[in-house]
Amino acid sequence: MSTPGNGSVLERVRDLVREVAKFGAVGGLGVLVNLGVFNLIRHTTDLQVVRASVIATVVAIATNYLGFRYFAYRDRAQSGRTRELTLFAAFSAIGLVIENGVLYTATYGFGWDGPVASNVFKFVGIGTATVFRFWSYRTWVFKALPEAPAAPEPAPGPAAAPTAQPAARPRTGTSPGPVPEQRAPANS
User: Fold this and answer.
1) For residue 162, what pLDDT band results from cuts at 50, 70 and 90?
2) Apex 136 CA angle, 70 and 61, nearest 5
3) How much is the pTM?
4) In 106-188, which ranges are continuous DSSP H helix?
5) Considering only CA atoms, which of 128, 93, 27 is closest in space to residue 120?
6) From CA 168, how far away is CA 166, in angstroms rounded?
7) Other CB atoms closer than 10 Å to residue 24's CB: what's the count?
8) Over the stretch 17-36, which tens digit does the pLDDT of each residue have?
9) How far is the first Cα of the chain from the last one, in angstroms, to the nearest whole number?
10) Which of 13, 31, 95, 158 is most exposed, with the fewest beta carbons within 10 Å of its own?
């Protein structure tokens, strides 16, 4: 049940679990940074909820890039750093809109603006955006290196060489049956 060059299904599942765990470790730190900066801004300034959240998200995005590049995806292709940063910024911006769209809807659409409600919906927004970010980062930003080509199979040795068959004797007559084998004369 394996495909050439891709390993078995079990190996691919193990690799995905390892990748999710690393992504989760970096993302967990990012969530702490995001919520910490958000609450610091909310309690020390008069900024509106969504503006404070956008600032916190941008700080977390910068923290996450360093974690993804140098920890979670350090084994991925590193060529084209400008392309990688551009795609990371673009997909992070989409994630920022998703994350803060949830908070905006809760705050201004439903009027849930208390400190607990703001943190709950900030967290729900982070979770929703994380699903998108995981897919986009692993698919477009931190692409996996191509698999090394499989080693060619060794050429068959002399033991595996086909054995020579005696040439068939030309048929004489009209019998459709098989040609009898010739036997070598016995030496007595």
Assistant:
1) low
2) 50
3) 0.69
4) 115-136
5) 128
6) 6
7) 14
8) 998 999 999 999 999 999 99
9) 57
10) 158
